[in-house]
Design goal:
Length: 459
């Protein structure tokens, strides 16, 4: 009996163990079926030291300095009783990709209680997109009433706004004093009086190691060409070294030349030593000083055929605000065999006598303008003017271009020819002695005007 009881107890334990295993299996099965209805979550192990809840990384952009200045002033000038022109440079990307604006404000000195007057500045970009880091800008400020009419003085202020350009979170505005007028300083009659000069030369900036002999020839030629009622404005961007200055001095002493030192402009990367800014400064600074302004370079010589005079040509174009003239491209190294061995005694335009005669090429032009009709000037002509432009001037006025010779300080003649036609490097040339034939008259004119002081200038 005791043995049987032990066997029954053993069987009961096995049954309970089996029931326990079955129960555990059913629980596991149920839990698996239940969890499939909930989204799964994978365990993520972060390799960074940041807590999981800040996994979106906030980055900062920290500006330093300036990529380009908002506005750089070169000059500001009156254009009449109620209008001004401000000449300068501005960031080219700012003008290409944004819309900077300008406001002009006049503060009178006559009374502290007199309110300032303001007007919207109209901007002109005369360099046709040729700018680099900086682009030339002319801001026209035309007020609805005469400014400083009682001549008590005051100042013109330019407010230049980026208008969201550069940093779109800010509309940065710079307030710039651009012009101060002292009491009784303005000669208002200049706007209506006949100009002092007939002709003004507004030159592009000159730079580099220029040949003083070439400058000497160019000045002597054009002083004679334009006559006693003419004046030349030369902008020195580094080209007026000691020897070139010695060439200019005699003509400066006679009152023919005004020299501007603009070497500081090299700090600002604009097109061709800020050429467009320079010619616009010349236009507006001397706008009321001459009937006509000429815009060309110091390796170019204006010429009028013998059947005309400069006065007759200019009078015939008086109905136009500007007119352009053709280029005669001359070789910079082909000379006559006849001159071999004695070219060092001859002037550049005297010995370089072969003209490029290749057809089908659109050669550059230069131009003359009545400055009072121009709002801005270009290099080859102006697009911002009142009045008409004439381009058909062939046979009336032209210019001989000796490209590359002005910066060459060695003998120009490297090839000698003895025929009326010559082909060099697949380019046809024809003999043209027009300038050579008048060289003697120019030399005599120089000697008469300033004496022999430049006779020892070297090539």
């Amino acid at each position: 009996m005791q043995y049987r009881n032990k066997e029954m107890a053993k069987e009961l334990k096995l049954l309970l163990l089996l029931l326990l295993l079955i129960t555990l299996f059913l629980l596991c099965l149920c839990s698996t079926l239940f969890l499939q209805f909930f989204p799964s979550r994978r365990l993520t192990i972060s390799l960074s030291h940041e807590p999981f809840q800040t996994s979106i990384i906030k980055r900062l952009f920290n500006p330093y300095g300036w990529a380009a200045y908002n506005f750089i002033t070169m000059g500001a000038y009156r254009g009449g009783l109620n209008t001004f022109a401000i000449i300068g440079l501005a960031s080219k990307p700012l003008h290409v990709y944004s819309n900077p604006t300008y406001e002009c404000i006049w503060f009178s000195s006559s009374s502290s209680s007199q309110k300032p007057i303001s007007t919207v500045g109209y901007k002109i970009l005369p360099d046709f997109g040729f700018g680099r880091v900086y682009t030339a800008v002319v801001v026209n400020c035309t007020f609805s009433e005469p400014v400083n009419g009682n001549n008590t003085g005051g100042k013109l202020v330019l407010r230049a706004s980026t208008n969201g350009g550069g940093d779109t979170n800010f509309n940065v505005a710079d307030t710039i004093d651009v012009l101060n007028e002292s009491p009784n300083a303005v000669n208002f009659s200049i706007f209506t009086s006949p100009p002092k000069y007939d002709y003004y030369y507004c030159g592009s900036p000159i730079y580099g190691n220029l040949n003083p002999q070439r400058i000497r020839e160019w000045i002597a030629y054009h002083v004679k060409f334009f006559g006693p009622k003419s004046h030349f404005v030369i902008y020195d961007a580094g080209g007026v070294h000691k020897q070139v200055l010695e060439v200019l001095k005699p003509w400066m002493e006679l009152g023919y030349i005004t020299l501007h030192d603009i070497r500081d402009q090299e700090r600002f990367d604009g097109y061709y030593h800020n050429q467009f800014t320079v010619v616009n400064d010349c236009l507006h600074r001397y706008k009321f000083m001459a009937k006509w302004m000429f815009f060309f370079d110091v390796d170019e010589y204006i010429y009028i055929p013998p059947n005309n005079t400069l006065k007759s040509v200019m009078d015939s174009q008086s109905e136009y605000s500007q007119f352009t003239f053709f280029q005669m491209p001359m070789s910079s190294n082909i000379c006559l065999s006849y001159d071999y061995g004695k070219t060092y005694r001859k002037w550049g335009f005297e010995k370089l006598v072969y003209k490029n005669s290749k057809e089908g090429i659109r050669w550059d032009r230069k131009y003359a303008a009545q400055p009072r009709n121009l709002h801005a000037s270009g290099v080859h002509w102006s697009l911002d003017l009142e009045g008409q432009t004439k381009h058909e001037t062939k046979g009336i006025i032209m210019y001989y271009h000796y490209h590359g010779t002005i910066a060459e300080n060695i003998e120009s003649c490297k090839i000698y020819a003895n025929s009326t036609q010559f082909i060099y490097e697949k380019t046809p040339y024809v003999l043209d002695t027009t300038m050579r034939d008048i060289a003697g008259d120019i030399k005599k004119f120089e000697l008469r005007m300033i004496g022999p002081r430049l006779q020892k200038i070297l090539q």
